[in-house]
Amino acid sequence: MKSPVTVLLASALLAPLSAISATPPGSAIVFVNGINNTFDDAVANLQIVKKQLNARDKNNAYVYGNAYNATQGFFTDVKSVFKQKAKEGSSPADFWRAIDGGSLPASGMNAELQKKYIAILAKSDVPELPDHLRKYRGYLKDKRKVVLIGHSQGSLYANFEINLLVTGPDKAQGAISAVNVGSATGYQLPGSSYLTSSSDGVIGALRLVQTVLPENFSMGWHPLSDVMGHSFSKIYMNKSYGAANQILKQVSQQAYNGK
């Protein structure tokens, strides 16, 4: 019979290996860009997030990715924002009625109905939707919590995509959320958060004609950085202005809440 000392020693040696094998994969941090961004712009913005978040959360196991919202030129991009706002609805439940005039059946959204909604949205309003969903589903399949960082129009993409994955057969409740920055949305989904500066002229102008979440971060005007106060890299992630720390904190909280 093994002595108690031997058993304790074996347990101590095996514990680290068990802990390592049980460690869940790191969260996926995905940047969803706004209007008039080239692919290189979107990648550069993700790199800013990656550098600052890795400095904040040392020894993390995050993976990073882009859900690219392709630009069609400034004026076409602005038009697409208004088309998406028309589909947004006044609440998460109203989103489905805004898409096709109907509502979800009491039994919920099955795969066939989800496919129908994706086809409607992808046809003109959110053309990148199928590609984005494939990316997120890949992360979810790997048991990763997905945290979207939606900037400007990217916040509309983030809300649409989360709504589909949470309400549909993917049943991704608690597994995907967003930190929307300079948010163009009219409401926030459960488990998500947002930060919009008081000096964001783009969202301020949109608020005059559309329902948009109120500003919730006080920031001075910095015209030498960006006269409209809306740039992701020059304003929101500029460490001199204070918003970056709050954004990183929200991303970190959501990433760790998935563990």
Describe the structure.
- The chain has 259 residues and is of the alpha/beta class.
- It has a single domain, classed as Rossmann fold, CATH 3.40.50.
- The chain is 50% helix and 10% strand.
- The chain has helices spanning 4-22, 39-56, 74-88, 94-100, 111-124, 129-141, 153-167, 201-209, 232-236, 243-257, and strands spanning 28-32, 63-67, 146-151, 176-181, 193-195.
- A five-stranded parallel beta sheet has the order 2-1-3-4-5, sandwiched between helices.
- It is globular, with a radius of gyration of 21 Å.
- 37% of the residues are buried.
Could you tell me the mean pLDDT? 89
How much of the sequence lies in strands comes to 5-15%
What is the CATH third-level topology name? Rossmann fold
- Count of alpha/pi helices: 10
User: In the CATH hierarchy, what is the architecture at level 2?
Assistant: 3-Layer(aba) Sandwich
How far the N terminus sits from the C terminus, by CA atoms, comes to 39 Å
- Helix and strand run: HEHEHHHHEHEEHHH
Quickly name the level 1 CATH class.
Answer: Alpha Beta
Compute the number of structural domains: 1
User: How would a crystallographer describe the biggest sheet?
Assistant: 5 strands, parallel
Helix-strand category: alpha/beta
Helix content: 40-55%
Oligomeric state of shown chains: single chain
Radius of gyration: 21 Å
Unreliable stretches: 4-22
Organism: Paraburkholderia denitrificans
Keywords: Signal
Signal peptide: 1-21
InterPro entries: AB_hydrolase_fold
